[in-house]
Sequence to fold (64 residues):
Amino acid sequence: MCLVCIAFASWVLKTANPQVGDAWKAVLLANVSALSAIRYLRKYVKIEAAASERKLYLTAPSES
Fold:
């Protein structure tokens, strides 16, 4: 999903006509899409790190 948002943002910026007065809408849409993708990736990385840490903790040999 993130790659789709980033690709869409890139496409919007490439196809926007800078001479048109509404170009700011395309830039805004691209920025919102990119920020959404970044937020999703950060959340995903945090979840994966927590899961990896839990797995490491559970598989570590206990000292008795």
